[in-house]
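In this supplementary section we document a worked example of the pipeline. Step one takes a protein sequence of length 402 as its only input; no multiple sequence alignment statistics are reported here. Step two produces a three-dimensional model, which step three serialises into structure tokens for compact storage. The input and output of this example are shown verbatim.
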Amino acid sequence: MHRVVVALVAAACGGLVACGNSSTLARSASAPVPTTDVSRIVVTPTETASLDEIFEAGHQAAAREDYRQAAVYFDRVAKLEPGGPLAADALFLAGEAHDLLHEHAAALERYEGVVDHFPGHARAPEAATRGVRLSLYEEEWAWAGRFADRALERLNELTALQQIAVYSGKALASVSQGDDVHASGFVERGRNVVEQRGLDLAGRLPIELAPLYYALGEIRRVRAERIHFDGTETFAGRMEARCQLILDAQSAYSDSWRAYDPHWSLLSGVRVGELYDNLHRELMGTMKPPASADSDDRRLLYYGATRLLYSVLLEKAHGMLDHTLAMAAREHERSPWVERARTTLAGIREAEQAEAESLARLPYTRSELEEALTRIRAELRGKAANPRAATPRRPSGASIAP
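The serialised model returned by step three reads:
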């Protein structure tokens, strides 16, 4: 049997209603007609209930943590009367139930319904904020920005933590498009709230701060990886600038770990590992001996020393990804970022093996390479401090100048 939805409207006529009969007592045309709002009745083959009763059944299911059934009840109310007085609350609560079931796509659909169809409702700011949070978890950066825009329309109704979440959403939406300038502005607005409320004290941070610091790390990562090397005399200055940004990015990512959220910790750990791995790859691809390395022997020594120097980057990347994967296993993370970390780590292990084999083939001891490395570091520091200085005189013997 098809479901039958019956709308009941009771009209009083002098206190008398003739039921089951086509005739009613006549009322004077000038007299007002009192009306009573009656909840719609839903009749199915197995039940007859009003929308109020279905809505209450949803609350009861949620109270006993039966979120699956709660979602069914709330969705039913919203579907049967999408413009009714219960619709906004039902949509929001259905979204919350799906949220608690970790069904993010379903939850987002319902939060979006509240924001789009009931923008003036009391639930709308919270729905928009939750939409930001879930969109960020799903890495739907553009959607996070859209939800954040709607939340910002009622910024004064948001709590401090909600404001931080919204600013994080705008920041990550911007930086994902390569706009680190606007992203930085939103991060600073979020950090101002953090500072004003004393939310960044020692110890564990509120979970809402994790995406904020991740966004700061992303801004610094993007800026670091815009700096490239071409083997010219600007190398030392560029290297110093990129390394500083990498360290700054790692600092921001590490702040996100203080929220103890496995998802953001996983993303941050992988990003740090990739920063070091990418730097190593680029350096190996642009490594060029200086003019002072004017013999095969000196060029080999240069390559050996610089390989030894840059192998530290692989060690840092390897250690970070090992730590991140151990955390993911401990927390039973199933994000695609786990596989991404494994793939990156496998590539790093191959690079480490290749570097070890290359160093083993050189006709120098490790101590000889380390001695040459000491001289290279000294000259790199000198060039960074005075990039316009003339190239130092080449030392005698087998030494080289970078």
